[in-house]
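Reading group handout, session on sequence-to-structure problems. Before we discuss, look at one worked example. The prompt was deliberately terse, the way you'd type it at a terminal:

> structure Transcriptional regulator

The input record follows.
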Amino acid sequence: MVKPIKNNSEYENALERAYDLMQQELAPESEASDELEVLSILIKEYENVHFPIPKPHPIEAIKFRLDQMGISESKLSEILGARSRKSEILSGKRKLSLAMIRKLNEKLKIPAEVLIREY
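And the output record:
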């Protein structure tokens, strides 16, 4: 029976069980498939509470997304509106405006909650 994960020992056991289930060819809608789904949700929740991943720095998020998408920094100038503005943003001399955050969110799909962080 699957139970809530309350400590590291139970967390480790849940990880082992999930790994074992993932090694099998599970039929959709099977009891084992449902168990894996529930375990995954419990593991994720335990990790979110006990091992939170901090949100990235806004400028690092922009650079990472550009790299990830294979876009040059010159394309960022087009998104932000001016070459000098891009340089000021990436160097940290200028903060992102609300209009810039909206454009970056729309064009690069960077979550607004990352871009509005204090830096």
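Points for discussion. First: Residues 89 and 96 are 7 Å apart (CA to CA). Second: The mean pLDDT is 94.
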